[in-house]
Automatic annotation (TrEMBL):
Pfam families named in the record: CN_hydrolase, NAD_synthase
Residues reported in the UniProt entry to bind deamido-NAD(+): N373, E402, K521
Name of the protein in its database record: Glutamine-dependent NAD(+) synthetase
Transmembrane segments: none
Binding residues annotated for L-glutamine, in chain numbering: S175, K181
EC numbers on record: 6.3.5.1
Recorded metabolic or biological pathway in which this protein acts: Cofactor biosynthesis; NAD(+) biosynthesis; NAD(+) from deamido-NAD(+) (L-Gln route): step 1/1
Lineage of origin: Bacteria, Pseudomonadati, Pseudomonadota, Alphaproteobacteria, Rhodobacterales
Family: Belongs to the NAD synthetase family. In the C-terminal section; belongs to the NAD synthetase family.
Alphabetized HAMAP family for the sequence: NadE_glutamine_dep
Gene expressing this chain: nadE
Annotated organism of origin: Pseudotabrizicola sediminis
Gene3D superfamilies per record: Carbon-nitrogen hydrolase, HUPs
Reactions performed catalytically: deamido-NAD(+) + L-glutamine + ATP + H2O = L-glutamate + AMP + diphosphate + NAD(+) + H(+)
EC class name: ligase
Length: 554
C-alpha cells in the first residue's frame, strides 16, 4: 500500500469548442505530471469542451466529438499517470456533466454531476440530466471522491463520498468570478472538510468566456480546514501536491500560497483578462475606441492597452463643435501616457451634411436630443468604418450606471463588440482609475505611471453633446445614483425600502422608471465583463415590454 500520492493540478484556460486545442493542453499537463512522477493529473470541469458551452453541448455531433476526444486522450496518455478530465457523457440518450478518469489507455471511471446549478448565469438543468449521487474511484490504491463544482456547494454528495470510503476529495470546477468569490468558495470548502474530516482539493479553470471570467484560485485544504496550498487567481498554473498517509488519514504537504489580490485589483484583472481572451478566442488582436477625454473611455483604453499591448490599441478623438479644449488635451495626454496611437477625426463636416440632409424633414422642429444623438451616431459610423478597414474590434465604454439608466445612445456610443466596464458602476470607475495610476503589475502590457491624467478623474463628467452639458443635468449625483441602483439592481429592493433608507422618493421612482425603460438598450448592447452577481445579461433577465412600477413607493 503506497504511503505517498502525487497529484498534479492543472489550472488551465480552455477554449469553448476547441476540442483539439483543449486536448493538447491536457496532454501537455499530463506530460508535466508524468515527469514529476504523478499518480494522477487533474483538469477542471468540462475541460475538453471548454466552459460554459451553453446550447452548443446540445448538438449531437459536438457531444460525440467531445467524447471521442476524451477516448483518444486516454490512448495518447496511456503510459504514465492517470488523467482526470471533465467532459460530456451520454447514457441511454441522456446527457451528463461528467468527470472522466483515464488510465492505462482506457476510461476507468466516470463520475457524473448531481447538483446542476440553475441560477444566476447557470442553466444546467436545460442542458444536463442530474445523476444519482456516486461513490469514489480508485487510483493506485487511493480512493478519490470527486463532487463536480456545484456538488461541493451542498453537503450531501460529499457526505455520501465520505461514507462510501473516499480518502481525498478532488473537486473539479468551472466557477466564474464575481467580486468576493474566492472567500465564498473558501468558506464553503472549509465546511465540506469539517463535515467529512477529509483533505480537499479545489481545482478551478481560468480564462474569459464571453461575459464570464474564470479566476482559478484553486486551493488545497487539510482536515481542520487548514489552507496548505493556494494557486494564483487568474493565471494558468500547473503544480504538484504531495499527499502522505498518516495514522489519521491523508495529509497534503504544505505547498505554495499565492496571494489573492484585493477586490479592486481583482476586478481590474478580470476586465483585462476578459478583453484579452475575448479577442484571442474570437480571432482579433487589435482594438479601436473613441477616446473623448472623459474617464470611461480612458479606463477602457487602459484596460485594452494592458490586455492587448498599447501598440494594438487605436484611440480616436472625434471632436465636434462642443468638444472642449481640455477634452482634446486630456485625450492626447492619456493616449501618450498609455503609448497608444491617437487619430483625430472631426465629425463637424459630417454633422453639417446630416443636418442639411434632414433639414427639409425637420423644418419647424426644435433642436434637441435628436441632434445630440446624431453626433454620437456619427462617431459610431466613423469608428465602425475604422474597425472594418483595419480589422480592429471596437470597444464600447458604457459603465454600469449608464447602462442601467440608458444614459447612452443606441447605435451611437453603444456601438461596439465588447464592453469591459459594463458591470462597473461609475463610482467604482473613479476608484479604478486611481488604482491603475498608482499600481503596476507584471500581467499588464501597458506602461506604469499616471496613464489616466488627473484632470480626467476630477473634472465633472460630460457627454459634450451640447454646450456646457454635464451628466448631472440629467442624472442625480453619481454617489446617489449608484446607491439607488445598488438597491434596485443588486438587492432587488422595493421603492419603499429605499425611501425608508433615506432616499428621496421622486428620485428613486425616476431611477426605477429609467431602469425599466432602458431594458431594450441593454438587450441590444455588447457583451461585457461580469464582475457582480447581478450583471446585465444572464444574472438579471428582465422583460423589455414591462408596465410594472413599484406601487410601494407611491
Ligand atoms: N422599448 C423600446 N424598444 C425599442 N426601441 C425603443 C424603445 N424605446 C425607445 N426606443 C428607441 O430608442 C430611441 C431612443 O434612444 P436613443 O436614440 O439612444 O436616445 P435617448 O435615450 O433619448 O438619448 C440618449 C441619451 O444618452 C445620453 N448620453 C450620455 C452620455 C453619452 C452619450 C453619447 O451618445 O455619447 C449619450 C444623452 O445625453 C441622452 O440623454 C427612440 O427614438 C426609439 O427609436
Ligand atoms: N469627442 C469624442 N471623441 C471620441 N469619442 C467620443 C467623443 N465623445 C464621446 N465619445 C465616445 O462616446 C463614449 C460616451 O461618451 P461619454 O461622455 O459618456 O463618456 P466619456 O467621455 O468617456 O466619460 P465621461 O462621461 O465620464 O466624460 C465615450 O466613452 C467615447 O468612447
Ligand atoms: N459549474 C458549477 O457547477 C459552478 C457552480 C457554483 N455555484 C459556482 O459558481 O462556483
Amino acid at each position: 500500500m503506497a504511503d505517498v500520492f502525487r497529484l498534479t493540478l492543472a489550472q488551465l484556460n480552455p477554449t469553448v469548442g476547441d476540442l483539439r486545442g483543449n486536448a493538447a493542453k491536457a496532454q501537455a499537463a499530463w506530460e508535466q505530471g508524468r515527469a514529476k512522477g504523478a499518480d494522477l493529473v487533474a483538469l477542471t470541469e468540462m475541460f475538453i469542451t471548454g466552459y460554459q458551452t451553453q446550447d452548443l453541448i446540445l448538438k449531437p455531433s459536438f457531444q460525440q466529438a467531445a467524447i471521442a476526444a476524451i477516448h483518444q486522450l486516454a490512448v495518447d496518455c496511456a503510459d504514465g499517470p492517470a488523467l482526470a478530465i471533465g467532459g460530456p457523457a451520454l447514457q441511454e440518450g441522456r446527457l451528463f456533466n461528467a468527470y472522466y478518469i483515464l488510465h492505462g489507455g482506457r476510461v476507468t471511471a466516470t463520475v457524473q454531476k448531481h447538483h446542476l446549478p440553475n441560477d444566476s448565469l447557470f442553466d444546467e438543468k436545460r442542458l444536463f440530466t442530474s445523476a444519482d449521487v456516486h461513490g469514489p474511484f480508485t487510483i493506485n490504491g487511493v480512493r478519490i471522491g470527486s463532487p463536480i463544482c456545484e456538488d461541493a456547494w451542498h453537503p450531501d454528495v460529499v457526505e455520501t463520498l465520505a461514507e462510501t470510503g473516499a480518502e481525498i476529495l478532488l473537486v473539479p470546477n468551472g466557477s466564474p468570478y464575481h467580486r468576493g468569490k474566492p472567500n465564498l468558495r473558501l468558506n464553503l470548502m472549509i465546511s465540506r472538510v469539517v463535515e467529512t474530516g477529509l483533505p480537499l482539493v479545489y481545482l478551478n479553470m481560468v480564462g474569459g468566456q464571453d461575459d464570464q471570467v474564470f479566476d482559478g484560485s484553486s486551493m488545497v485544504l487539510n482536515p481542520g480546514g487548514h489552507l496548505v496550498a493556494q494557486l494564483p487567481q487568474f493565471d494558468e498554473h500547473v503544480t504538484q501536491i504531495v499527499f502522505r498517509r498518516t495514522s489519521d488519514g491523508w495529509r497534503a504537504d504544505p505547498g505554495e500560497i499565492a496571494e489573492i489580490p484585493p477586490i479592486g485589483e481583482a476586478d481590474y484583472r478580470a476586465c483585462v483578462l476578459s478583453v484579452a481572451d475575448y479577442f484571442a478566442k474570437t480571432g482579433f488582436s487589435k482594438a479601436v475606441l473613441g477616446l473623448s477625454g472623459g474617464i470611461d473611455s480612458a479606463i477602457v483604453a487602459a484596460i485594452a492597452a494592458d490586455a492587448l499591448g498599447p501598440e494594438n490599441v487605436r484611440c480616436v478623438m472625434l471632436p465636434s463643435e462642443f468638444t472642449s479644449a481640455h477634452s482634446l488635451e486630456d485625450a492626447e495626454k492619456c493616449a501618450r501616457a498609455l503609448g497608444c496611437r491617437l487619430d483625430t477625426v472631426p465629425i463637424t463636416a459630417a454633422q453639417k451634411a446630416v443636418g442639411e440632409t434632414l433639414a427639409p424633414l425637420f423644418a419647424g422642429t426644435d433642436e434637441g436630443i435628436t441632434e445630440e444623438n446624431i453626433q454620437s451616431r456619427l462617431r459610431g459610423v466613423m469608428l465602425m468604418a475604422i474597425s472594418n478597414k483595419y480589422g480592429e474590434m471596437l470597444l464600447t465604454t458604457g459603465n454600469k450606471s449608464e447602462m442601467a439608466v440608458g444614459y447612452c445612445t443606441i447605435y451611437g456610443d453603444m456601438n461596439g463588440g465588447y464592453n469591459p466596464v459594463k458591470d462597473m458602476y461609475k463610482t467604482r470607475m473613479f476608484l479604478t482609475a486611481r488604482w491603475r495610476n498608482e499600481n503596476h503589475r507584471d500581467w499588464m502590457k501597458g506602461p506604469a505611471g499616471e496613464v489616466i491624467p488627473e484632470r480626467i478623474i476630477t473634472k465633472p463628467p460630460s457627454a459634450e453633446l451640447r454646450p456646457d452639458q454635464t451628466d448631472q443635468d440629467s442624472l442625480p449625483p453619481y454617489d446617489v445614483l449608484d446607491a439607488i441602483l445598488e438597491g434596485l439592481v443588486e438587492r432587488e429592493a422595493s421603492v419603499a425600502e429605499l425611501v425608508a433608507e433615506g432616499f428621496d422618493r421622486d428620485t428613486v421612482k425616476k431611477i426605477e422608471h429609467l431602469l425599466y425603460i432602458a431594458e431594450y438598450k441593454r438587450f441590444q448592447s455588447a457583451p461585457g465583463t461580469r464582475l457582480t452577481q447581478k450583471a446585465f445579461w444572464l444574472d438579471r433577465r428582465y422583460p423589455i415590454a414591462n408596465r410594472w412600477r413599484d406601487p410601494s413607493g407611491a
